[in-house]
Amino acid sequence: MRKLWLLLLATVTAFVLAACSDKGDGSSKDEVSEYRTVYSGEIKTLNYLKTAEANEFAMSANLIDGLIEYDQYGIVQPSLAEEWSANEDNTVWTFKLREGVKWVTHEGEEYADVVAQDFVEGLNYVLDAKNESSTAWIATVVKNGDAFYNGEITDFAEVGVKALDDYTLEYTMENPTPYFLSMLNYVCFFPVNGEFLAEKGDTFGTTKETTLYNGAFILDKFESQNERVLVKNESYWDKDNVYIDRIRYKYNKEALTVAPELFLRGEIDSAEIPTSVVDEWFNDEEKKSQLRQIRNNFYTYFYALNFNPQFDEEYEPQNWKVAVNNKNFRKSLYHALDRVSAMLTTEPFEPESLLNNTITPKNFVDVDGVDYTQLAPLADISNTDSFNSDLALEFKEKAMAELDGKATFPVKMVIPYNSGSPDWANRTQVVEQQLENLLGADYIDLIVEAGPSTGFLSEIRHPGKYALLEANWGPDYADPASYTDPFTEGGTYNKPELAEGYTDANGKSKYQNLVDAAKAEMDPAKRYELFAQAEAFLIEEAFVIPYAVGGTGYIASKLNPFEAQYSPFGVTLEKFKGQRLLEEPMSNEEFKEALAAWEQERTEALANAGE
């Protein structure tokens, strides 16, 4: 009881300090450090074992810890696992857990120790098909994971995860998996307290009260379309490396539009700056000093062509289906998209530097020193701009001839965007005008639709309510499969397995067979070559139009991006742990200097780590 009273007293004291210093600029050690921002996209669930939405990943990253984490240079570090080892062929991985780590309630009250069985319970939940986890497909890397998910076996004890004792955890893989560590910062491998999960049942993760926390922060306030507040977890095992005491998200349906002005008024600590006002900021000395580029990441952006259209009948989904199943029609779109024009809506100064010709971005993985994107036959695609107006018009003529009497022209193409993003809205308008001007209003009619700012994935993308859609994907682990899997049967994107004329003798799509062959190959050099063939096929057949890498645009922020944990994988980039609030925002000149220093330091860190 005394411990609880002291905890409550500490909480009250923290909020009194916060009231005395609402600036949250970290300028005094006696002040509570508060990071403030605005948002328009709501979080629908706190159930990290179920979700696959970026907003919810960002929340989970700060509330729940996994087995490992990364430092600011991308080097794997211990988190809830203090040490680990793998057998010779990387089929069995053993983790020794940190003792004394606590699960706490939303009030900061200690609930239980974090033990090895919690990781077993988490994976059991994810692989139980009735729970409809959106990340289960990643977890099937463990032995019998896929078989359990599909009901071929019903005893979870046969799945490759075991608690050998309270603090020793063992995973057995379906196949050799040398990249398994890179998968562990993904939510499907996060722990859950089994007793709490059973008690809450279907309500688990629906409110702050039905969630347990073992991460750097606790959810103190969770009010839809109002505010969500995270406070530092005083029971956190590594609290000395958490420098921000409170994170305050304030709802505003026009968040991206109003954020720049709120930042200038000192009401928030970070704001993405829409392209429409970037010039104005750069031409104002005071604003310019607060503006910098957003740090690039390993998200890749592309335009998906939907083979299972579910949009309204007035837009003729069946006619679109006929057209999109014609390769020449797809190729006309592939070569007609002027990606530089589209990118100017986000990066008006160096748009070419952010273009990406493949799904897998450069510098993701390599084999024998050769970047994956430079492996044949992917290299030709990677090194060639897909935009070619002459080819686009040639393919248009072929398509119109082949579709004569089969499809009605102009083909209606529904192209939605997230209404919470001004740049996305502008870019969609640019793409509409550019494609129609090049290919002609006699050929295509792009119909731009504003989608919801909250639930865009679940309401638009996942149900297939589009013909053409700007989409993105981030890697989950250090293997090319992380980028090819979303397009396989049952994957996230555009159902290319439904394309007509691509079914092999075994009943699977040609693309699926190419990916399966790559996955079955364990020699890294041969494996990567096979994946390169699969990805090249996906692009050459114009099932998808690669576009850009993530992290584009400009931001005004009191966060130093080079203090953040760094990794392409999982939810790492969303963590606030290790970051401090700057007294003044970083300018673009300071950003470039810091980036150059970081790149040099990272090279040295990787060499020292033996990677």
Automatic annotation (TrEMBL):
One of its GO terms (molecular function) is peptide transmembrane transporter activity. Pfam families: SBP_bac_5 (PF00496). It is found in: Cell membrane. The keyword Transport applies. It is a lipid-anchor. InterPro entries: Peptide/Ni-bd (IPR030678), SBP_5 (IPR039424), SBP_5_CS (IPR023765), SBP_5_dom (IPR000914). Its main location: membrane. Residues 1-18 form the signal peptide. GO terms for cellular component: ATP-binding cassette (ABC) transporter complex; periplasmic space. Belongs to the bacterial solute-binding protein 5 family. This is Peptide ABC transporter substrate-binding protein. It comes from Ureibacillus sinduriensis BLB-1 = JCM 15800. The lineage of its organism: Bacteria, Bacillati, Bacillota, Bacilli, Bacillales.
